[in-house]
């Protein structure tokens, strides 16, 4: 496995919430990225520099995302 694939392997798109791609790392941490749904598919990886902490979202949105995606597996 190359270094590049190791970097990206842990940042998998697991779904979408509005106009945000929801990304889950192997350790279960959830992030989001401002990527239009038509440009990325579930299971694809995202550059770590494009990830944004859920803490930047309103608390209710954080709760909804965590509820919906906490138990999903990283593809």
Describe this entry's structure for a reader:
This protein has 75 residues and is an alpha+beta fold. The chain has helices spanning 3-8, 59-69, and strands at residues 12-17, 20-24, 30-33, 52-53. Strands 1-2-3-4 form a four-stranded antiparallel beta sheet, with helices on one face. The chain is globular and about 25 Å long.
* Share in β-strands: 15-25%
The gyration radius over C-alpha positions equals: 12 Å
Binned, the helix content reads: 10-25%
Ranges with pLDDT <50 over ≥5 residues? 5-9
Q: For the report, how would you describe the main beta sheet? A: 4 strands, antiparallel
| Global geometry | globular
Tell me the number of helical segments per DSSP (H or I, 4 or more residues long).
2
Q: Got a strand count?
A: 4
Please report the distance between the alpha carbons of the first and last residues. 17 Å
Task: Average the pLDDT over all residues and give the rounded result.
Answer: 87
Order of helices and strands: HEEEEH
Structural class: alpha+beta
- What is the spatial order of strands in the main beta sheet? 1-2-3-4
Topology:
Layout: H1 3-8, E1 12-17, E2 20-24, E3 30-33, E4 52-53, H2 59-69
Antiparallel strand pairs: 1-2, 2-3, 3-4
Which features does this protein show?
single chain; 75 residues; alpha+beta; four-stranded antiparallel sheet; 2 helices; 23% helix; globular
Short description:
The protein is of the alpha+beta class. About 25% of the residues lie in helices and about 25% in strands.
């Amino acid at each position: 496995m190359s270094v590049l694939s190791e970097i990206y392997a842990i940042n998998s798109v697991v779904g979408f919430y509005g106009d945000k791609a929801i990304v889950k790392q192997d350790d279960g941490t959830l992030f989001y990225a401002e990527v239009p749904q038509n440009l990325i598919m579930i299971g694809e990886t995202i550059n770590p520099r494009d990830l944004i902490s859920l803490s930047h979202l309103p608390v209710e949105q954080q709760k909804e995302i965590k509820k919906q995606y906490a138990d999903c597996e990283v593809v």
